[in-house]
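Continuing from the previous page...

OK, I double-checked the sequence for DoxX family membrane protein against my notes and this is the correct one:
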Amino acid sequence: MGGRYDDAVLLTGRLLLAAALLPAGLQHALNPSGFALALAGTGMPYPNGVATGSVVVTTFGPLALALGLLPRLTGLALAAHSVAMGLLLHRFWQYGGATARIEQELFLAQAGLAGGLVLYAMTGPGAWGWQGWWHGRRGEPTPAPAAPRKRPPAARSAKVPPRPARVAA
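Thanks. Re-ran it with the corrected sequence; updated structure tokens here:
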């Protein structure tokens, strides 16, 4: 794969990750007090503030992800949020039986999303994102960097003997 195919795969991955995250963000944005109550039920300190921050991250983060804006910041912030929410809301180790298996699957899904987001943060959005458009790379392969130029050796200068020190009279 190369060039356009890589960019198409990166765009598809970005859109799939955004589609996995945006519905929960919109749901929390439509009912932030209900989300704050769910966080308070886990023992979270300052659940209203955490819920507000989470709504901002889960609403604007997937939009930035889909557009390819600030890939490192977006990817790492969404990955950290995904792991934190997985640890807070899907405590499978506290349950037994079928409930533990379901909570474990939900936690592992959150961890998998975090892994995909870290990969996005490291690879970037590709040419079919905001940065590619902004820098003028609309689907063209990225040119190879130019080889560094070698400097000619510096000319040797003759050593000048030091001046004698002045003696104050």
